[in-house]
Amino acid sequence: MSGVLSPSAAKVQAAIRARGLALAVVELPSSTRSAAKAAQAVGCAVGQIVKSLLFMGRESGQPLLVLASGANRVDPGRLESSAGEPVAIANPEQVRMHTGFSIGGVPPVGHPTPLRTVIDRDLMGREQIWAAAGTPHAVFRLTPAELVALTGGAVAEVAEEARPRAGRDRGEP
Known about the structure:
The longest helix has 12 residues, at 7-18. The termini are far apart. This protein is of the alpha/beta class. It has 5 helices and 8 strands; from the N terminus they run αβαββαβαβββαβ. Strands 1, 2, 3, 4, 5, 6, 7 and 8 form an 8-stranded mixed beta sheet that branches.
């Protein structure tokens, strides 16, 4: 890790500082492209990783950034309740256009224009979390309260409910 950030990571660092927070973006030698890889790279639980997913409103055409726990899958029905309209996952071109970043490194801030943001309620129970910082190798650590302050996001139930594994109803492990 050198002290000089890549242009994309530096853009995220500048956006964080512009919001008055003293959080440090770091670039790692290993990939943080997926929640599992990010958790391994920083030495935390997958649930502490903030997945940045972009959805598009099917009626409005407006982007919606969802910041979900890395341990969760987003439930489209729950998300649509928060969004107030049906949504669809954005394609890579839409992600790049609306966030300014490629999939695998989309941060919660630093976008060309502010994005309406929904934050997975499950992240709020964590002491610290890690978010992408513009590249598949850059991250920054923050608290859930800092994530809300940084993004202005609305906290909502967006995760799929846990389903019992097969056999569990019969008392099997």
